[in-house]
């Protein structure tokens, strides 16, 4: 992506994750949407090391003028014999302290208009400097997947129960498809040492 003129603020970026070359067209479409909407901010695509070694896909990125950030693959310890691959890499932006604000957009999403306000909107600050913005996750379709918790169903979806007064665990689940992140060293430390912090009290 070109960094000429008003389309460049190096302290704030859009990012998405690409772990499979089959989804490059979706990345290209997102870049097109950001250009068309005249966003002032650059798209930098997170790619895994196996994609970095793919000379053809890297040539595609170069020809399209799309910048990349190489990240390590993250594979946590299995829990209950279950593990969802290709999702934990979404945590990578939390450690990108070279930037002040990062907006993560899941691959496959589109931009219908300019939403640069996400780069400057004031976010609430939580304990230990954690600052982020997103929305509650819709759990209506999660119940059909075997790996999802049993309480994530249409009946427990926050959007289906807006008028209800009860609070369910599923209401606190955040949507990871679009995340506005204010980056700071404190949150990197929190993510790194979370188990110790959790037990420190």
Query: Which architecture of the largest domain does the CATH hierarchy give at level 2?
Result: Alpha-Beta Complex
Quick one: biggest sheet?
6 strands, mixed
How many strands in all?
6
User: Given the helix and strand composition, which structural class is it?
Assistant: alpha/beta
Q: Which overall shape is indicated by the principal axes computed on the Cα atoms?
A: globular
Relative helix content: 10-25%
Order of strands, main sheet, comes to 3-2-1-4-6-5
Task: Report the oligomer.
Answer: single chain
End-to-end gap: 47 Å
Number of helices: 5
**pLDDT averaged over residues:** 77
The number of distinct structural domains comes to 2
Low-pLDDT residue intervals, each spanning 5 or more residues: 1-5, 195-201
Give the topology string: H per helix, E per strand.
EHEHHEEEEHH
CATH H level of the largest domain: which superfamily? Spore Coat Polysaccharide Biosynthesis Protein SpsA, Chain A
CATH fold-type name of the largest domain: Spore Coat Polysaccharide Biosynthesis Protein SpsA, Chain A
Would you kindly provide a written description of the structure presented here, covering whatever features stand out?
InterPro entries: GNT1/Glycosyltrans_8, Nucleotide-diphossugar_trans. The structure is a single chain. The longest helix has 13 residues, at 24-36. The chain has helices at 24-36, 49-52, 55-64, 185-192, 194-199, and strands at 12-18, 42-48, 67-71, 101-105, 131-133, 178-182. The protein has two domains: 12-134 and 175-199, Spore Coat Polysaccharide Biosynthesis Protein SpsA, Chain A, CATH 3.90.550.10; 136-173, no CATH class. It is built from five helices and six strands; from the N terminus they run βαβααββββαα. A six-stranded mixed beta sheet has the order 3-2-1-4-6-5.
């Amino acid at each position: 992506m070109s960094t000429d003129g008003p389309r460049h603020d190096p302290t704030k970026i859009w990012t998405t994750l690409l772990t499979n070359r089959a989804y490059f067209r979706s990345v290209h479409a997102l870049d097109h949407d950001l250009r068309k909407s005249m966003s002032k901010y650059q798209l930098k695509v997170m790619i895994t090391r196996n994609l970095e070694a793919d000379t053809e896909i890297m040539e595609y990125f170069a020809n399209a003028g799309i910048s990349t950030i190489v990240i390590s693959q993250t594979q946590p310890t299995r829990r209950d014999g279950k593990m969802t691959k290709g999702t934990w890499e979404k945590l990578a932006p939390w450690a990108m302290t070279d930037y002040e604000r990062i907006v993560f957009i899941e691959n496959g999403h589109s931009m219908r208009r300019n939403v640069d306000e996400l780069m400057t909107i004031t976010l609430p600050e939580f304990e230990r400097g954690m600052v982020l913005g997103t929305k509650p996750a819709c759990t209506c379709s999660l119940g059909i997947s075997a790996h999802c918790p049993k309480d994530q169903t249409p009946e427990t979806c926050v959007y289906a129960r807006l008028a209800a007064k009860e609070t369910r665990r599923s209401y606190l689940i955040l949507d990871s498809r679009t995340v506005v992140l204010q980056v700071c060293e404190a949150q990197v430390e929190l993510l790194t040492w979370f188990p110790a912090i959790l037990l420190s009290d």
